[in-house]
Amino acid sequence: MQLSDFNFDLPPELIARYPLEKRSASRLICLESRSNSICHRYFPAILELIEEGDLLVFNDTRVIPARLRGRKSTGGEVEILVERILDEKRILAQVRSSKPLRLGSYLSLTNYQFLEVTDRQNQFYELRYNNERESILEMIESIGQIPLPPYMQRSAEEEDRERYQTVYARHKGSVAAPTAGLHFDQDLLRHLQDKKIEMGYLTLHIGAGTFAPVRVNQIQEHVMHPEYLEVSPELCANILAAKARGKRVIAVGTTSLRALETAMQSGTAQPYRGETSIFIYPGYQFRCVDALITNLHLPRSTLLMLVCAFGGYAKVMQAYQDAVRHAYRFYSYGDAMWIEKAESF
């Protein structure tokens, strides 16, 4: 398939630049495979769509304030976007600068906080924090900004430190929120528990590459940036138990889906700790996930390709046209979709 197959017209006023006052107040466009229908509801309707005994899987990554500003030794300004924390003292990062950085040079963040440029890997730099008093994560959390996606066209505000984070976020390391999870508040989670819906957690740290545009016409030629994930033995046991009792595995977000499908590559759920570069587009055969909760994504993006693979290309693209016509709110702070896996496409 070609990149142009995943294009659609999106009026800029439909891009959600701020969250709703209440997390679960968003709208929900539903694609049901059995009835082959598209319907429009509000997010709490997932309580009716998810059945007792189904397994709902969340990504519990926690967003770090991964945007840093500094200066080169020559005085030129730089903007640093953390891609991944490598260890206590090193990060992999994109650096916006007037000229490429020299290995061995230093970037000053404050009067006493400096990063040394130690390596370059394609568009990413490896940067070392030479400070014995604190870790590089501690430094990032003290002076960094929440890295809102570029399409919001605004700087992060104080509210974003809480709202661009799921209520169940635990493991620090992501530079973007697993946005499908932003719709869940504590009340909704309690209602899910009361309905005896099983809940499991995995961790996938989303990298800055999630915003990278697809630059090839033939989508099969696109290469995904690797991201780190962990799927526990406990979650794998819960997946196998849900399948054995004839219940569904429901991924909250495309990151959860990618992590689950990575852990299921052998044909059965197996614990996984490491990187994934899995690229899911139409034609992919899903092994684990039966239903997906997700947001409305960018035209021509790998995330749109994934949901087209899952729900069926024609139906998903029709749903996106419906979402535009009904003035749904798009992207990170926008509305949501419920998608059941297409039986054939």
Structure description:
With about 350 residues, the protein is α/β, with parallel strands linked by helices. It has 2 domains: about 5-65 and about 160-340, QueA-like (3-Layer(aba) Sandwich); about 65-145, Thrombin, subunit H (Beta Barrel), CATH 2.40.10. It has 8 helices and 17 strands. The longest helix is centred in the last third of the chain and has 13 residues, at about 315-325. The strands form 3 sheets. A 9-stranded mixed sheet has the order 2-1-17-16-14-3-12-13-15. A 6-stranded antiparallel barrel has the order 5-6-7-10-9-8. A two-stranded parallel sheet has the order 4-11. The chain has helices at about 45-50, 135-145, 160-165, 185-195, 235-245, 255-265, 300-310, 315-325; strands at about 25-30, 35-40, 55-60, 60-65, 65-70, 75-85, 90-95, 105-110, 115-120, 125-130, 170-175, 200-205, 225-230, 250, 270-275, 290-295, 335-340. α7 packs across α8 (about 315-325). β8 (about 105-110) and β9 (about 115-120) form a beta hairpin.
